[in-house]
Amino acid sequence: MPHQAFTRKVETRTATVAVLGLGYVGLPLAVAFADAGLTTVGLDIDEEKVDQLRRGVSYLRDVPAAALAGHVQAGRLVPATDEAVLARADAAVICVPTPFTKAKAPDLTAVIGAAEMVARHLHAGQLVVLQSTTYPGTTEEVVRPILERTGLEVGRDFCLAFSPERIDPGNRRYVITNTPKVVGGCTPACTEACAALFGALIGHDQIHRVRGPKAAEMCKLLENTFRSVNIALVNEMLELCDRMGIDLWEVIDAAATKPFGFMPFYPGPGVGGHCIPVDPVYLAWKAREYDFHTRFIELAAETNAGMPAYTVRKVTEALNRAGRPVKGSKILILGVAFKRDIDDPRNSPALEILKLLATQGAEVTYHDPYIPKVVLSADRFLAGASITTLESVPLTAARLEAQDCVLVAVAHRDFDFPWIVRHSRLVVDAQNATKAVRERREKIVKL
């Protein structure tokens, strides 16, 4: 059995692991493998990223430069762009992006490219793991045929499995090494090989085996669809409570005192990142293959997608009450990351808000201590807007005082909200970030 020799290599720390894709998922994973004493090769097509890593420079806040540099200098982590390194890898873990197309269909270009790269260097005894979030069936229907074109057979010559990533950027409490791992192989032997690899990171008691890749793939989609649906629920409740003159944040705090049967979710200007806006799309697309329409899931996605526009309406209403039209108003957006205290703007609702306000003629700027520049994709840019690139502006008292409105889109911990409110004419708070501010609350408008 191929997994037995592989397991022995992992246990004796003589195995070499290749991580394909060194982004928000792949780089922390590569460092974790190196931390566990496994020789790790980080493979990426971005030469600039790889050059930074070779110099011990981390481009992610969640990856400390000191730990990274130590592994690189010791040879435990080898950043590379040459796929030939896969020939000496005992395991290849695919962590590449899985976006969707304009037609809202899965885009597996990167997964297919990575699988073909692995196939060119596939050898007996190797373990291949797909971690990229995708629809159920990808591992067996897309990746497996590519690998088996080599003449090697899954379960007999090499192992293939899916294990969903559970990276939560900015989360210091739950990291790779203390978050349980779900593994599902194409055969029982494949599952055991995958369990052995990730057991080296988190302990074998934290491995949860499922009967195959499809269950593991669906697990990831369920996790994030659960979040999407519950966020959509509170976002819809937000609009209702607004009309009824009820503070939803107060209601949620009250409901959260119930010790059973309730889990608090919070409203906001929309959902972002690579998971929550994307995963339900993958699931809905796959469901159509089975003549199943995921009405509930798609409605939740639609509700969340409408929150940037709702936020802009609240800004417009607040400006109108202050006697100012949106057109010509100076509006400063605080935070363009997709969540608090991270440097990742992917699918951030703040970017859509920027575009909507610019389209209406507002003079928009933003400040984010973690994101120095954003590019607003031209293909999605709304007609009438004149900007496509913005740089973060310094946050000073003079700048705040010059704005007609300040919108809190992301509640970074670095923001001093009492100070921000004190120096602003009008604050629209989309995150309940000013909850503890006691003075000058007449300036604050909450979503």
SSE inventory with pairings:
Elements: H1 2-11, E1 16-20, H2 26-35, E2 39-43, H3 47-54, H4 65-74, E3 77-80, E4 91-94, H5 109-119, E5 127-130, H6 138-148, E6 159-162, E7 181-185, H7 188-202, E8 207-209, H8 213-244, H9 248-255, H10 279-288, H11 295-305, H12 307-321, E9 330-334, H13 349-359, E10 363-367, E11 373-375, E12 389-391, H14 397-402, E13 405-408, H15 417-423, E14 427-429, E15 444-446
Parallel strand pairs: 1-2, 1-4, 2-3, 4-5, 5-6, 7-8, 9-10, 9-13, 13-14, 14-15
Antiparallel strand pairs: 6-7, 11-12
3D structure, described in words:
The chain has 447 residues and is of the alpha/beta class. The protein has 3 domains: 2-211, Rossmann fold, CATH 3.40.50; 221-303, N-(1-d-carboxylethyl)-l-norvaline Dehydrogenase, domain 2; 307-446, Rossmann fold, CATH 3.40.50.720. It is built from 15 helices and 15 strands. It has helices at 2-11, 26-35, 47-54, 65-74, 109-119, 138-148, 188-202, 213-244, 248-255, 279-288, 295-305, 307-321, 349-359, 397-402, 417-423, and strands spanning 16-20, 39-43, 77-80, 91-94, 127-130, 159-162, 181-185, 207-209, 330-334, 363-367, 373-375, 389-391, 405-408, 427-429, 444-446. An 8-stranded mixed β-sheet has the order 3-2-1-4-5-6-7-8, sandwiched between helices. It has a 5-stranded parallel β-sheet with strand order 10-9-13-14-15, with helices on one face. Strands 11-12 form a two-stranded antiparallel sheet. Helix 5 packs parallel to helix 6 (138-148) and helix 8 crosses helix 11. The radius of gyration is 24 Å and the shape is elongated. The model is unreliable at 379-384 (pLDDT under 50).
